[in-house]
Design goal:
mainly alpha
Length: 148
């Protein structure tokens, strides 16, 4: 059986190159501020459109929401060259926030005719998704840099 000696200098150089690649990735993966704002505004617009209780408003708002999300994903991929899925813990937090905000708003809007609740829910969830997006992006950058 042949034994292969590991060249310490070569291994150190490869490790340094990997660390440099991670630092370069960290420099480019944080989305610009307008990305988070646009994401929040898209969600707000779609949910607030439900306040008008008209499929002639809600359906185009849904199409605009989907197209806007697609454009944001495309812009991010074009800018960074990568895409990453949402971590399960963050998705669970988002699902909890949505349930706490959206269910009561839907009950008020559809059950009691208080359509304004959807505007409030849109504002709360739009703000929340923008903030969560920014926080998660910064944490990912810190992780890539090896910071706690």
């Amino acid at each position: 059986m042949e034994s292969h000696d590991v060249d310490r200098d070569a291994a150190a150089a490869q490790l340094a190159a990997l660390q440099a690649d991670r630092a370069a990735l960290a420099d480019r993966v944080l989305q610009p501020w307008w990305y988070d704002v646009a994401l929040g505004l898209l969600l707000f617009g779609f949910l607030a459109s439900r306040a008008l209780d008209s499929p002639w408003v809600t359906l185009p708002a849904l199409v605009l929401f989907g197209a806007g999300l697609g454009a944001l994903v495309a812009a991010y991929r074009r800018r960074t060259g990568v895409w990453v899925g949402t971590p399960p813990r963050l998705m669970a937090l988002w699902a909890a926030v949505v349930l706490v905000v959206l269910v009561p708003a839907l009950v008020l809007a559809d059950g009691f005719g208080q359509r304004w609740a959807m505007v409030v829910a849109g504002a709360v969830l739009g703000t929340a998704v923008g903030v969560l997006s920014r926080v998660w992006g910064r944490r990912w950058v810190a992780e890539l840099r090896g910071q706690p």
